[in-house]
Amino acid sequence: MGSRRDFLEKLSVSAISLPILYSPAKLFAAPSEPYEGPVLRVAIMGLGGYATRVAKAMESCKRAKLVGLISGTPSKVVDWRAKYDIPEKNCYNYENFDKIKNNADIDVVYVITPNGLHKDQVIRVAKAGKHVICEKPMGINAKEGQEMVDACKKANVKLLVGYRMHYEPKTVEVIRMRQNGEFGKLKFFQGLSGFAIGDPTQWRLNKELAGGGAMMDIGIYSINGARYMLGEEPIWVTAQETKTDPVKFKEGVDETIQFQMGFPSGAVASCLSTYAMRHLDRFFLNGEKGYAEMQPSTGYGPIEGRTHKGELTQPHITHQTLQMDGMAQLIFEGVQPIVPVDGEEGLKDLKIIDAIYEAVKTGKKVDL
After folding, report:
1. Does 209 lie in the same domain as 118?
2. Which residue in 136, 158, 170, 351 is the catalytic one?
3. 300 tagged catalytic
4. CATH number of the domain where residue 302 is located
5. 16-44 CB burial, b ≥16 within 10 A, e <16
6. Is 0.85 topped by the overall pTM?
7. Quick one: 205 and 283 in the same domain?
8. Tens digit of pLDDT for each residue in 11-59?
9. Are residue 146 and residue 175 in the same domain, yes or no?
10. Ranges for the GFO/IDH/MocA-like oxidoreductase domain (predicted)?
11. Which domain holds residue 73?
12. 108, 170: one domain
């Protein structure tokens, strides 16, 4: 990434329209140097398990800071305020958070709530004049996603999606190798994304709140991974669903879906999304000149992988720390990650998810 960034900087005089690319290596190369630039002031909406992870990761950020809370549970607000020294004036509930419009101390709201709530919450934040980071999937279908993109454009605020892997160093290195042609003509991608889900009463197994099942929560990693590993957009999908527990996985909540995607170059992807199998977190990319394999490929802990050139040795940095610092750079300086994290990127994944569900329902190949 560093050489690519340097190359772009050298071209800046003759090609000033080219975007500056984010480099995790440069961002964290000299931790002893104090950072004196702008700090992105973040309010988190939804104080659940993943929000806890994001908040902890932000303690190590240079460019982003947790300054506000939005929650429907007063006791959580009390605990979080004490832990992160959040002023009372920066705390809201789901009924009154529109008032952030009048709070100059908040720049962006990170929406980390159930999928089915994203659209309305994101649009309300946009109308309040604040930038939005929305956890993925951005919405429960492409129609919702388009409404969210349109609302943020109308309000002239940025809509970003929590694609932490777009900042992860080993992932960035594989994408860089692909961009440089080191795998040759790409032929095949495999993505396996799944775990055995627990509590049957949780919102992820509620059609209204989740918008589906495993595909919305974990299958999206293989969809997005296929796109950034191959560097193309799929032109067709086919899919097959397997359901072994119709009590736990009710109508409209998928347990396991195998899906295939075809790409303009002729490359194909074969993927599995499931809530019923353990130890599934693997990407494999095959090209005429080489390969890349990553396992784990998207988990929170250190990503592990190798290519035909050897082990991937980039250092592990907490993904959400990189993500939030990277998004601060994007908002303040226009520094783009190697793969976009904007609303249009989120919308592309939602269109593919819609097509996969249609393929499951019809048994037919669906063109995109």
Report:
1. no
2. 136
3. no
4. 3.30.360.10
5. eeeeebbbbeebbeeeeeeeeeebbbbbb
6. yes
7. yes
8. 333 333 456 777 776 665 555 678 999 999 999 999 999 999 999 999 9
9. no
10. 174-292
11. 38-163
12. no
